[in-house]
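Pasting as-is:
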Amino acid sequence: MKNIFGSKINFNEDNQKAIYTLVGMNNCGELINWLRYALRSGDYSFIDEYIEEKLPKYMYNGGKGKIFHISDLVKIRQVQRLNQQQNNTKGGGLPKIDSKEIDDLNQLGQNQNNIRKALKMIDGGKGNVKHREIIWKLEERGFIGESIIGVCLLKGSPLHCILARRIIKKFPKLVNDFMISEEYYGLSPLHQSIINEDLDMMYFLLKNGADITQRCYGSFFSTYDQRNTRWDTTDYEHVEMSINTNYFGKTYMGELPLSFASSSNNLDSIRLLRGFKADVTLKDYNGNTAMHMAVIHENHDALHLLYELGGKLSSHNRLNLTPLTLAAKLGKKKAFEEILNLERSLIWKHGNYNSFSYPIAKIDTIDQDTGVINYESALSLIVYGDSQEHLEMLDGLLEELLKAKWNLFAKKKLLTSFIFYVIYYITFAIAFSIRPTKKITTNLTGSEVPIFYNEYNSNCFLTIYNFKNIEECIRFITELMVSVMAFIQIIIEIFDIRHLGYQRWWNIYRAFPAKLLYKLSLVLVMLMIILRYLCYFDNNIMMFENFLAIICIMMTTIHFLFYCRAIKYIGAFVIIIYDIIAKDMIIFIIIYSIFLIGFSQGFYILFLSCSHHTLELNQTSMTCENIKKSLYNISEQKSKKNENEFQNKICEPHESLLRMFIMTLGEFQDIYRNINNCPDRALSIAGKVLFLIFQLIVVLVLFNVLIAMMTRTYEKISSTNNEYKRQLAKVILTTEVSMSAQERRIAMLKYSKPIDVNRRKRGFIMNVNIYSDEGSSKKDSQCYRIALQRRMKLIQKLREN
């Protein structure tokens, strides 16, 4: 306990709080000293008398308590949270507030149960707590809002626990007096004893009326990503937070005492709390039960025990996750397998082989009643998970389920889709490969003459088809087929988006970049049809259409990668290509562009200065237009004649970028020759130094860094032997989306069987060799023993020598 809270609290300032003079955290304090005397002498009269005389002044009404409206308690959290945000510090003392007293309630009542009943009557009896009974005065509490019992249990030593028991016997209402602070609000002595794993103290508190439904709302016990989203309302005691969370947090323990015991894997505490009628179905703010908490903290023994004591595996949290699907989302393989074993039922047994039926209601992606896609299913969460833990879960039951889907419908659907895609691709390639560059015909003498002579026809010749020419007929047929097939696929996709919703559609297909590019190419094809007939209004439209045609053929070709993902030895390499482009190449391009822009402008200024110096010396210097013409028209003899003359190859700033890119590919002879031919000797030397730095930094360093990054990505993915399973699974689930709900339900009925008389509940039958794992572990232990014996023999021989 001290290790948990020690980093949060400064306990060296004992003299600043009166409570720490009674019980200090360093085994000191007046009560501690009197208790030591009582233990040595056996006379407890002095410690009991001291408790009765000293402590009542620190409590409301001498230990009988006082009723506070929850808005007064919530203000304490709000003030502390604002102070933490402003000062960027944690902890601190409690602010003084003017609380609202409840005049209509008798706060001096002797029976604690009567007080609780009265509070329920005031709050309306609907479970929304509006008033709380506080025993220890707010201004007399410790640094984290703890009472004297809280101080004793923070230390948790046997001496402090004995003192806490004697205080509770004198003032029973302190048993439920919880901490009041932003970080530990609601932490009761029962919570503390569970964290301390002190079973005797737990039993004592429960026998003395400890509340088993007390909730701890402190930020210290929240998930990491929810701590910055906390806010309060004066109408409710609980803290409002964002429900979107990843549940990460070592101290996230689920508010309730039973959830605390489940999070700490304290089996005896779970049994004790259940013995005192603790409800295993109660949920925290995130909707997590004690079984959810066992999954989050991977406490498999606690999970199994809670199930035996009445826990429900069908309970949903606020993100609609059961313990099974929560384990799937978080990648908790052992917890996932444990829950599967709890849910399965034995069909038959023969020797080492057992046949089990696994309920698929929360496992399969197809709803067993309607056939719609269940995106919160375990299979969907695992397949679209991106961690190595998710990949390791694609074996056993899920692997057999995916095989059943593949053999039943996915293979056929994917093959059909591939055949239609190949037909579309071939048609698309033919349509654009036989496009004419200009509209001409041939007269009787064999010479080529244009059919039409106005300038509009010269730019819109693609809209005119000469059906007497076989190539024109083929072009018309193929372009018509491409247009119709693209239009049909767009209409189908629109229906899918309307049915799934855009967000769902995007979440499914964003894992397939090749397919997204293919769908975009279909839209561009339809845009090309519009642009083709707009050429009569603008002569430049044809150029834009040609540009779209190039983009479309590239996007359509890349779609082959989608089908390659389903192949065992190719799927992983497709992912390598995606990761290299999406991660390594983007990082490299950003860094490379910075150096490229800087060096390109440096070379531009250098060549510009050499060009001016050449003009000053009355030497000939080629203009930019002549340089561009020289790339194609100057003969080899003329170029050889001007080899020793300076030529400004970088005439414009934007052209210098392209020249620098060409230099990084190894074509630097022309640039270096002109640097060497610069008339100014100083500029020539400066250019050579700049050239050397560019080659070292950009060509050698950056490109080798890119190679290293790509090698790391390749080794990371290729070392994963089961990556092809995930790619195949994604292809199968994507194929499911393209089917109708009725088709999916019929397919599900074929690979599943009824669980019981109620045929609506379906299960997946799987044969398991129950001794296979035990046999492999025995074999490993036997090999270890043999190796150990050989090692001992070798050591003995060495000693003898």
